[in-house]
Amino acid sequence: MKKVKIKDKTFRTLITYQQLSEAIDRVAENLNKDFKDCEQPPVLLCVLNGSIMYMSELMKRIDFDCQVVSIKLKSYEGTNTTGKVKQAMGLTSDITGRKVIIVEDIVDTGNTIVALKQILADAGAQASYVCTLLHKPEAYVQNEPLDYVAMEIPNKFIIGFGLDYDELGRNYKDIYVLDE
Ligand code: IMP
Ligand code: MG
Which helix (H) or strand (E) covers residue 106, if one does? Predict the structure, then answer.
């Protein structure tokens, strides 16, 4: 099993790129079915920075017309959630009247998703859908339904495939879990 070290912490492989890739195939298949007949191209919302890798993999598999918009939110410090969601950069385009597919790296407590859905409603979105690569069901404290979940994982801190520990580790292709 491969291990990586970032600052003071060691991480071991949890999910391989191959497994992620197959899970993303399944999500894309569902999105292609559900959004193929939209009047207006849906918006794929990239939640920076964590979602960049998932977004690039997902987009390649989507065959309906879509527009990419970004927003930057922040809630984690180190390996813990602060419980507050900060908007570090606003929506990069007008989304009034649009269907918005929120592309997230991970839904943990769900606070980010709830805050984001409110931001989108305030910005005039017609509807929003949650499309997350990962989900930690044991950490989830919200009631918001998650529309598309590629994989569920235990309540452990992870890095790689876009996810960071103090801004490092996003570049790893596989996902690694804190080795305690
Ligand atoms: P939530 O608001 O608690 O659902 O957290 C969502 C955000 O926290 C995600 O979009 C991630 O950016 C970050 N996050 C949650 N869990 C992890 C983790 O295990 N590693 C790195 N970042 C995480
Ligand atoms: Mg994120």
Answer: strand 99-107
